Automatic annotation (TrEMBL):
<dbReference type="InterPro" id="IPR027417">
    <property type="entry name" value="P-loop_NTPase"/>
</dbReference>
<dbReference type="GO" id="GO:0005524">
    <property type="term" value="F:ATP binding"/>
</dbReference>
<dbReference type="InterPro" id="IPR003593">
    <property type="entry name" value="AAA+_ATPase"/>
</dbReference>
<feature type="domain" description="ABC transporter">
    <location>
        <begin position="5"/>
        <end position="223"/>
    </location>
</feature>
<keyword id="KW-0813">Transport</keyword>
<dbReference type="GO" id="GO:0016887">
    <property type="term" value="F:ATP hydrolysis activity"/>
</dbReference>
<keyword id="KW-0547">Nucleotide-binding</keyword>
<keyword id="KW-0067">ATP-binding</keyword>
<dbReference type="Pfam" id="PF00005">
    <property type="entry name" value="ABC_tran"/>
</dbReference>
<dbReference type="InterPro" id="IPR003439">
    <property type="entry name" value="ABC_transporter-like_ATP-bd"/>
</dbReference>
<protein>
    <submittedName>
        <fullName>ABC transporter ATP-binding protein</fullName>
    </submittedName>
</protein>
<dbReference type="InterPro" id="IPR051782">
    <property type="entry name" value="ABC_Transporter_VariousFunc"/>
</dbReference>
Amino acid sequence: MDYAIKATNISKYYNKKRIIENLSFNIPKNAITLIKGQNGVGKSITLKLLTQLITPTYGDIDCSYTISYAPDTLPKNIKLTVVSYLNYIRKLHVNKRNYIDNEGLNHLMERFNLSSFRNTPLTELSKGTLQKVNIIQCLLNNTDILIFDEPFSGLDEATEQTFINYLSELAHDKTIILTAHNHIIENTIVTHVLNLNTKQFYQVHDKKNIELKQILIPNQKTTLPNEIQQYIADQKQGEHNIIALTALKTNSNLLIKSLIDHNYEIIEVKDL
């Protein structure tokens, strides 16, 4: 098995206070790993260790892949609009191998229903909207490993579902590591869990069991309503003026119903 990150006997101390002690685990490539545990057990510290923002007091972390990171919150003093901030982050990576271009940024803003806030200063955003910006900035470098600290905090239910669908699609060629206070995600797309209370790392779902469906519809040259987008994991322009929508199999019936309710013609539905 190929591993994205290997941690061997890592410990972290702050002012002689033990935060993490003698922790070992191997995260497989293309896994979706949930790091969980009670408050104060060191979840955020573990994420920062994995991103190499901080180093362990003892032990080793082996990772040769590129990493993007979304902290639990963005700084509150960023005096830029949404689009200015995201373009600034995007341009930091413009010379790297797989940065997201301007079209990709616009697509992400549409997916997360941020387009109407593009000229709004970050200081004026609600917690949930600011969290969407935080999630997108993590995606702009198009790295091998994506690490999110409490990404669902502040999100409404529709955006939670949009994000879950998107993570499922990303996991086909990326490794995803996250913390989440609400562990409902553990029963959806998470493949592995690192429990810091017990120091156990275990598999919960085989990613092969995360089934997808593709639904083909005509391209009507308009943005799909949010009521439809919340069920979509991926959207691509196909041949002959066709749009291919990908959804988790568990969401496919809801997506089909929503398309019908909005008078969209469905050309074909197939398993992936």
